[in-house]
Each structure stands twice: as C-alpha cells, then as structure tokens.
Amino acid sequence: MERLNSKLYVENCYIMKENERLRKKAELLNQENQQLLFQLKQRLSKTKNPNGSNNDNDICSSSSASGKS
Amino acid sequence: MMVHTMHRESPDKGLDSGKYVRYTPEQVEALERVYTECPKPSSLRRHQLIRESSILSNIEPKQIKVWFQNRRCREKQRKEAARLQTVNRKLNAMNKLLMEENDRLQKQVSHLVYDNGHMKHQLHTVTSSTFASGTTTDNSCESVVVSGQQHQQQNSNHPQHLQRDANNPAGLLSIAEEALAEFLSKATGTAVDWVQMIGMKPGPDSIGIVSISRNCSGIAARACGLVSLEPMKVAEILKDRQSWLRDCRCVDTLSVIPAGNGGTIELIYTQMYAPYFGMQASGTTTDNSCESVVVSGQQHQQQNSNHPQHLQRDANNPAGLLSIAEEALAEFLSKATGTAVDWVQMIGMKPGPDSIGIVSISRNCSGIAARACGLVSLEPMKVAEILKDRQSWLRDCRCVDTLSVIPAGNGGTIELIYTQMYAPTTLAAARDFWTLRYSTCLEDGSYVVCERSLTSTTGGPNGPPSSSFVRAEMRPSGFLIRPCDGGGSIVHIVDHVDLDAWSVPEVMRPLYESSKILAQKMTVAALRHVRQIAQETSGEVQYGGGRQPAVLRTFSQKLCRGFNDAVNGFVDDGWSPLGSNDGAEDISVMINLSPGKFGGPSHYGSSFLPSFGSGVLCAKASMLLENVPPAVLVRFLREHRSEWADYGVDGYAAASLRASPFAVPCARAGGFPSNQVILPLAQTVEHEEFLEVVRLEGHAYSPEEMGLARDMYLLQLCSGVDENVVGGCAQLVFAPIDESFADDAPLLPSGFRVIPLEHKSTPNGASGNRTLDLASALEGSTRQGSEAGPNGCNFRSVVTIAFQFTFDNHTRDSVASMARQYVRSIVGSIQRVALAIAPRPGSSISSISAPTSPEALTLVRWISRSYRVHTGANLFGSDSQTSGDTLLRQLWSHTDAILCCSLKTNASPVFTFANQTGLDMLETTLVALQDIMLDKTLDESGRKALCSEFPKIMQQGYAHLPAGVCASSMGRLVSYEQATVWKVLEDDESNHCLAFMFVNWSFV
C-alpha cells in the first residue's frame, strides 16, 4: 500500500507538471491564434480593397514572429 | 496479523510445553477491557490483574505482558493500515481530478493546434491566391461531418431560412436538389480538394478511405467504406445522428415534407455541444459554452440570448425565478469544472495527500473569482449542509437571512437570500448581497448549490434596502458536491463576485480587486472548514483543555465576530460616534449603550453583553504600512506583547469581568511590561489559526494595589501567521476572560488585523481605465513604492486596530480619553515595530547589505560614541570617522561580532541589532534576531560573568568578560577570546541598550 501510495503521489506530481506544461502551451497557442486571426482579418480586409502594397513584407514578419512563439 | 506467543507452561498445569497459548473468549474480553483503560499496564498492575481476575489466574505474568505487547502492536498496525487507506483514497481522488483536468487541457491544446494550423494555412492561401478571399464562407449544404463553426453559422441563419421557405415546398425542393448535386460532387468527385488522411491502414481491417479537405472554405472530411448491412438500415442508423455523434446534443425534425419524387425533405434543427471554450469565442463573445465535467440535462446555453426578455417578463413568479436559477446553475458548472473563467492555478499547491486540493484564481475576468476543489470524508448532503451555513465558516459574514423558499418543482429548492458582510477595515463600507440560491441534485448523483445576485438585468424581486452597505454582486457561484468512490465527496467551490471596487478609497481598491484574497478568505476557508469538521468527526483531531472542538470553534467565532462588530460599528447594533475632546481625528471612538443588541440578526449573535457595565466603548484606527509582511508583524505583536501593551489597561479590561470597580488607568504603553505565557488551546488542521490562552503574570503596578496583583487571562485568536501563505491577511484578536473559562464566557474582543494590499501589476489586456487607475495609484505612493519590482519587495498593508472597553455612566469620558490615548500609543508602537521588521532592500537576499534607515545610523553613532566615551579607545582603530554613512559601513563590516540588546530591568534582554559578523555568529537575520534572547545565547559561566560585572558596567560604562562559549540561534557552539560589554548612551546620556563585542569568535 505504501508503495502504491508513493507511486500515486509521484504520478500526481507528474500530472500536475504535465498540466502546468499544457496550460502554458495552451496559453501560447491561444496568443498565437489571436495573432493569426488578427492577421487573417487584416489580410482579408486588405485584399478586399487592394491598396496595401507592402503585403508580402507583413506576412514574412508575422509568420516568423508566430514561429518564435 | 496476530502474533501468538510461545509459552512454556509449567508441568503442574498439565499442558505440553512449547505450545501457543490460546486465550478463551472470556479471557480476551477481560484483557481487552483492561486494554481500553490502559494500553500499557505496569507490571504491578499486571500482577494485580492475575490476582484479582479469576479468569486470568492461570496465565503467567509474562504471558500477560506479551499479550499487551502484541495488542499494542496490532493496534499500531491497524492504525497504520487505516492511515495508509485514507492517504490512498485521497491520492486516488486527487489523481482522478488531475486526470480530468489533464484530459480537458489536452483537448484544448489539440484544438488550438488544429486551429493554429488551419489559420496559418488560411493566411497562406489568402496571400497566394487573392481570388480565394472573394469566395468566402457560406456553404450551407449539410455534409456528413458538421464542424462546430459550421453549425454556428447554420444556427444563426436558420430562422430566416425557415420563415422564408417553409410555406413553399417547391422552393425547398430546389434547395434540396441543389444540395444533393453539390454533395454528390464532393462524395465521389473533386468538388473539394481532398487529401487522403495519414495513418490509414491498407489491410482488411481498415475502416475505409478517409480524406480531408485542403484549401476549401470551411472544413470537410469524407469517408468511404464497406459495411455488412442493407442500405436502408445504414441510412436509418446514420440519420439518427445522436446515436453516433457524441457532440450532438439534439436533433429536432421540425417538419417533414414529401418531395413528390418519392423523396423526403425534412427541416432539422440540430444542437452541438461546444468541444472547448475557445471554439465559440470567435462567434459569440459569451463565456457560456465550455466543456465541463458535469453537464446537467436541463441547462442550455444557447437559450441565453433569449433569456433577458423572458426574465423581465415573469421574474417575479416561480417559473421566472427557476429560469434564472437554471441559468445560474449552468454558468456555475461551467466555471466549477470548466474554463468559463480564465483560471490560473494558485501558487503553493501541494500534490500530496495532505493537500487541501486544487485552488485556482481568475485572471482578467470581470469581477474576481476563485475556485477550489478537494476531497472531504463526509457525505455530500452533510457537506452541503455545512457549506450552506455560511456564517459558520465565513468569518466576514455578518448575517444571512433567507427571505423566501420556493420549491423548484424538479426536487430542487430556490431561496431568496439577503447577506451582510463585514468591512475588513474602518476605511471602507460593508458589503451586502441580494441573491437567489438554487439547490438541486444532478442526474449523476451530485448535489449542487448555486447562487447569484438578483439585479435589474436578471430581474426578480428587489432585495431589502441597505443604508450602511454597498450592494455587491455575486456572479453565478456555488458548490458542486460529487460523491466519491469509497465514501466521502469531491467538493468544487466557486466564488465569483464583483465587490464594487470603485466605491472604496483608491488605496484600498487592490483589496477588492484581488482574486487571491477572495480565494483565501472565502473559497479556501470554506473547504478548510469542511475538512476541519470532517477530521473532527473522524476523531483525527486532538484538542487540548478537554474542550469539545465545537466549543473552541465557537470561541474563535465569537472573538472574530466581536472584533468585526467593533471595526464596523453598525448603527443597528447600537453604535454611535463619540466626538473627541482633544480635536484629533486620528482615532475614532464609538460607544454602544445597548450592547445587548450586539450581534445583529444572527443566531451567532451573543446575548452575553448585558453583563458589561452600562455600555461598551470602542476606539479604533487604521493605518498604512509599507513593506511589512502581515504575518511577521502579527507574529511580533503576539510574541512581544510587552512592546505595545499596557499592563494597567489590560488590568482595567480584565476587571470589567468582575463586579468590583476599578480605577481607570492612564495609558502608558510599554510603561509596565508584563510577562506573558501563551498556552495553546486549539489550532486548525492546517495550522493557519490558533486559539490560545494568554496568561499575563500579575504584578502590582502601584504600591497601593500591591495586594491586588493577580494573573490575568486573555483568550486569543491568531491567524495568518504562516508566511508561506501568499497574500493572506493576518489577525490577532483577544478578549479578557476570567479563570472559569466558561463555555459561554462573555467576550469583548480587541485586536489587530493586517491586510496586504497588492498592486495590480499586470495591466496587460486590461482596459485603459485600469492602467489609469494603476498610474494614479502609484502617483499617490512614495517613490519607493513606485519602484516596486517584480520581487514583491515593495508593498503596502493596512492595519486596523480596535480596542473595546466597558464603562459606567460616570466614567465614560475618562474611559474614552484613556482608550483614545492607548490606541494612539499602540499606533506609535506599531510604527516602531514596522520600521524594525520591514525588510530592507536586499536584506531578503542571501548577501545582506547594511541597513540604511536613519534609526540604524543613529544607533551606530551612539554605539561608537559610547565605546569611545567609556573605554577611551576608538571602536574602529585610529581612523576615527564621524559621518554617518561611513561609520555605519565600518561597524557593519567590523570583523568582530557587535550586538546590541535591550536593557530592561523586568524583561529578559533580547537582541535588537547586530552587524554582519554578529548575524553570522548567531546564524540569524536582522528580522529574526529580535526573537533571540541574550540568556539563551550565553552559557552558564558567561551569564555568571555578566551578572558579576553588571554593576561595573552600569557604573564605569563597560567591562571585559573572559573567554567563553556561547550558542548560535541554531544551537551551534561559538567560542570567543574576549567579550566587551558597554552601555550605549543616547544623545541625552540616557541608557539606550547594551552593546557586546565578541572578539575572535569561531564555531566550535
């Protein structure tokens, strides 16, 4: 029983760490998604009235930014 | 498990030697009876037993001894097994909870990853072909697999569709034919850019061919496979979407129209569960549809949009209230087990079996929220009963009135509740809540109690008017109690409130905006209380003083309540302000001429106060402190009562318990320090609260009262002194009590409460308002405050002090002025103490830098000047410096240990200051130094030497002590070659303290 308990304890520790990791990951992904969504919206509105000339630059910088996060 | 013993019977008993002794049931019973009285009887008792009991007379004394040994051993094993069992159960429950959370998080992450990929892809598509953006969205054809987002769109489009075409079968048929064509072109054609899904198996066990879309508007998937059923049967099964699609909540066929060509057209309304919270966030901004572990059958979020009108119409009848209740329930559940609030785990959580559970607080949500989840070994209904009695566990709750009870029809109950909450300090008004509480059972056997405010937006009857309260709002909150395998319950508690922070003074606002404080004061307090009762019920808690836990808890509650009543001074309790004579408004004094009304409309209210003279008077004040950890301050106030208390005032307070008249003393804090002895009575399971008796050792403080000197007793409650608890408030409340310690003893509490005010340091994602607020809050603070770093070194706390005294009509004014003076002197003491214990910048880090306060500079000047005056030599050799800063640095880095200790005739000397080497020698810090007594540091011969030299020190100003040994605070022995002791004089030549210099010391 004692062994089982310590096993459970270690497992709980592990899951807690894992959960923490997942939470962080979710947070990062969420941020990235927000960013992407924003870019997507911007891109769509720009393509609708094609005045923006620096499209390609924007995409390069944004995709590299998202890659970092 | 039972260990039988070898027993060599004596031959005359006629038994074979070397056999196990078998005890008859009667013998065992007799032994057990003795065991319950005394598990470890002496040999005398054992012999007596054999002599006196006829059943045991044929057993040898040695055997009896062995029997008891075995019995104790068995008991120990059983206890150990039970303990392990309990631990195991807790760990298992924790494990289950963590796994559930893990599951949710994994789903969330995978969805995010998917969305992420999808959006990156979209972004790429939009840029590579500018055409794509032209042909956006609407593809209202029903495909085999419906995504959540598509479903959303349909949902919003549906009503119009139905209205426009429902009366026109031909119109519907044309839509149907069009859909058919498009579907077929996808199913067997290339209308969608299909890509085969990876991981498909080619063998006979393969499910079929699965493809997914690439670059299409929306998302699509198709599958094709062989099944051994007739086509009509397959269609029947697939049409029953609910039978196979887990996310499908309902499919309602609203009308069936024969299509004329043998086909059938149906208008279908389908609801899909949201797989995770982020999914709908893009479509609708509400936080409703998140996944929760428990989904009640009745609740439904989608109806939310229709709700307001619905409620406004009939919120005053039971049906309207029920719909508010159901809505609150759904919202509560999505917070309790889901992610409707952006939860962040609170730091300091333990994974082990002793952990209170999982505590989370909200981040960036409107209002503040906290939730806790843990295991308790009580049945769900019992837990609900305890938690519903909010006053029993929430110390800040003044009263809870249930104004009406309405059966909800489905077995549940709706109550309308008016709650009053004490203000924590004198600087803000108290809060009240007007709420609807809904208690019901869920389908899975859980019991749930949820509560929310009734406001103008929800509708419903108006609550009682409140004059001296600010109406706060409770967002859907409550508790969910799930029965747990193997007994006990898993309790989820959510508190989500809006305390109307804008109505309090700016400096106090952080207190009303801190989800951490909410978590500590309410959410965790609730869980702790339930666990406490569970442990008491199971007999795991040992209590001192022979008192029942419930009695001790009542004492704690009475102390807290009395202190809260004093701090708040409600008019309906009978309090009225008393103007001050000396014009100063720093201390407010209130009197209560009808103290019998105390306690308000509550069953915790006490009817004890009529025994208190003709009235009660309360002097109170609040002050702000910087950089003082609440726990440290309160611990200091508790351990060093003589630093702030006045024996005469204590005596007056104690005398009010007796009938005998007692002269009103004039307050002189610290004038006559008394020795205190703290006798612990009880503490909560997690040691966050102590109930104790303080014995103040009696000594006559004026010649004429020599005969009256007697010990006094205070019943004292100390909480929040655990420094490991982050952001908690600390409190020290005490009341004089007579020697009888009767259960219903009258208590008139006084004391201190220290509440940390943390700055909101993360305004990211917040509105401009909050940033403005932060900026203006910083503007008001000192420069030091505005430099508050992330290390949390700079912070403020608010200290509230309230002292209560009884008075008779003719003594009112003198008691008032005494109380006012006393509290003023205590404010001064606290300021002094705060200065001493505030961590200096850097001092909390391992490499200690010299203190730089003006007090330290002055002290160092006095130390070195006194040394020079007495010995004629210079402390720092020939290089004589008089400028403060250099002097301080020289003393601080002096190679010998230089220490100062207090110089009081009637209290044992404690250290007040030490230089770096001194701290090293005592193995302590500047803060902890002040708890170290000189007596404990010097050894026997050192103490003797000091005693014999003491007159010389007083006369000549200094003396040398021979080489000796002393002990560090850790108990390590330190040898020194010589110790010099000198008297430190203040500028006016009065004695300040004693200074010690230990020369050439080293650890032994």
UniProtKB/TrEMBL annotation, chain A:
Composition-biased stretches (Low complexity): 51-69
Lineage of the species this protein comes from: Eukaryota, Viridiplantae, Streptophyta, Embryophyta, Tracheophyta
Name of this protein: Protein LITTLE ZIPPER 4
Region (Disordered) location: 43-69
PANTHER family associated with the record: PROTEIN LITTLE ZIPPER 3, PROTEIN LITTLE ZIPPER 4
Stored InterPro entries: ZPR
TrEMBL record, chain B:
Keyword Cell membrane attached: no
Domain START: 314-542
SUPFAM superfamilies named in the record: Bet v1-like, Homeodomain-like
Residues covered by the Homeobox domain: 14-78
SMART domains in the record: HOX, START
Keyword line: Coiled coil, Differentiation, DNA-binding, Homeobox, Nucleus, Transcription, Transcription regulation
DNA-binding region coordinates: 16-79
S-adenosyl-L-methionine recorded as keyword: no
Transmembrane region(s): none
InterPro entries: HD (IPR001356), HD-Zip_III (IPR044830), Homeodomain-like_sf (IPR009057), MEKHLA (IPR013978), START-like_dom_sf (IPR023393), START_lipid-bd_dom (IPR002913)
Residues covered by region (Disordered): 142-166, 294-313
Protein localization: Nucleus
Listed Low complexity bias regions: 143-160, 294-309
Coiled coil segments of this chain: 74-108
Top-level taxonomic group: Eukaryota
Principal place of residence: nucleus
Family affiliation: Belongs to the HD-ZIP homeobox family. Class III subfamily.
Protein name: Homeobox domain-containing protein
